[in-house]
Design brief:
Blueprint: H1 2-17, E1 30-31, E2 50-58, E3 63-74, E4 77-87, E5 95-103, E6 108-112, E7 116-128, E8 141-145, E9 151-153, E10 158-162, E11 167-177, E12 180-184
Antiparallel strand pairs: 1-9, 2-5, 3-4, 4-7, 5-6, 6-12, 7-11, 8-9, 8-12, 10-11
Length: 185
């Protein structure tokens, strides 16, 4: 009798415990009706509106890739961008040449090569010198942008802004793959 009750209890536990399936490979939540935040037009860069930096990173050991980029938008106004990637140990296999391409039209950045990570990369981006008078701090976000322009939620510590100084920041965004990311409102 005890064996029968134990078998029934175990079967019930299996049925109830496995009732809800979760998909670990599901897409992040899509964000609708948001626009990338525009950056002021540069002077002196001509038709060039992108700036790329590269660094070799060994995914086994991890490492840091931090770059500063700035450009003039007026006689006394400069846009400053600081981008910092922190690769945790075992983020990926082998050594890769990682690229960061800064966009001077929108508050966005594109990473390469296209790849998925075993352990998410921590990413912090700060931009200053931006006109944020029309940006609502309550709807500010930092998102992943796919090839079709669809935007998706990215896990992060926080996103903040200061309209008086034109300052935007995302702290420790968790990048599980390389693509295009940016600030939206």
């Amino acid at each position: 009798m005890k064996q029968l009750i134990s078998l029934l209890f175990f079967t019930l536990l299996l049925i109830l415990g496995c009732e809800q399936a979760t998909d670990v490979n599901s897409l992040p939540e899509q964000i609708l009706n948001k626009q990338l935040i525009s950056l002021p037009q540069p002077i002196g860069l001509g038709v060039e509106d992108l700036h790329t930096e590269s660094k070799d990173i060994n995914g086994y050991y991890g490492g840091w890739f931090s770059e500063d980029f700035s450009y003039q938008v007026g006689p006394s106004v400069t846009v400053n961008i600081t981008s910092t990637l922190h690769f945790n140990n075992y983020s990926f296999y082998g050594t890769k040449t990682i690229t960061q391409t800064f966009d001077t039209e929108t508050a966005a950045i594109t990473f390469g090569p296209s790849m998925q990570f075993n352990v998410p990369v921590d990413y912090t981006l700060t931009i200053s010198g931006v006109d944020l008078t029309s940006v609502n701090p309550a709807t500010l976000d930092f998102v992943y942008i796919d090839a079709n322009g669809n935007m998706f939620y990215v896990e992060k510590d926080y996103v903040t802004m200061d309209a008086s100084t034109g300052f935007l920041k995302v702290k420790n965004a968790k990048l599980d793959h390389f693509s295009r990311y940016g600030f939206v409102n």
